[in-house]
Amino acid sequence: MEFDDLSSADRLRLMRFVCSFAWADLEIADAERSLIHKLVDKLDLSESERAEIALWMKIPPPPESVDPTDIPVEHRQIFLNTALQMVGADGVVDEREVENLALFEQLLR
């Protein structure tokens, strides 16, 4: 994945989506938590951004803050690929995760 192409704002937006997908089944599994930490390290986020993500791991990001139409067209595949990675991270794909992913994919078109 080409995270280097993402602006600082888009990196944080990506993590907001990742965290919202982690919450799709109403809990964040250890494997999902681990993936979030790996992504945070790869994205080289600031301390304040890391603190915001830590909060999203305790409380889901507000629904209005995860609007797929806000994602720049050139980055939508990165967001979709990362969401897919999150959905499969814990080895259990919940029905709500599948529904969220399908809706996300439709809205990105």
Short descriptors:
109 residues; mainly alpha; TerB-like; 5 helices; 61% helix
Report what the structure shows:
The chain has 109 residues and is mostly helical. It has a single domain, classed as TerB-like (Orthogonal Bundle). 61% of the residues lie in helices and 0% in strands. The protein is built from 5 helices and no strands.
- Mean pLDDT over the residues: 92
Question: What gross morphology would you assign?
Answer: globular
User: What is the correct CATH architecture?
Assistant: Orthogonal Bundle
Number of helices: 5
How many domains is the backbone divided into?
A: 1
Secondary structure: number of strands: 0
Instruction: Work out the radius of gyration.
Output: 13 Å
Write down the secondary-structure element order: HHHHH
The CATH class turns out to be: Mainly Alpha
Q: What is the CA-CA span between the terminal residues?
A: 19 Å
Query: Low-confidence stretches at least 5 residues in length (pLDDT < 50)?
Result: none
As a percent range, the share of helical residues equals 55-70%
CATH topology: TerB-like
Structural class: mainly alpha
Q: Biggest β-sheet, characterized?
A: none
The percent range for strand residues is: under 5%
